[in-house]
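Subject: GDPGP1-like C-terminal domain-containing protein structure
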Amino acid sequence: MQENNRPFNVLIIESGKRVFLVLQCYAEKQALGSASQEFLDMRINPAVWELSGHLVLKRREDYDEASEATLCRFLFEASLSGAEFLELKMRVLEFLASTSPEE
């Protein structure tokens, strides 16, 4: 991910038994200038917290007008496409296979 300049977070739980890799797709869209102005105005920063369902709406108007449809559109914008997910999955599995200890 770092070699491809893709921002991400890693969440490690259960003493390393489970590892979650969370791409920061929205941060990348912001940097490229392709993020929706509607969501830029809301100032939501979708990190692990937000992608887990806890959204902090910073403006009263956003809270008053919040709807399931709006939040679903936002989460869609902050997510990988199906093709991007498959590409990431392939890269992660290749990396893990290349670093696994020999048996």
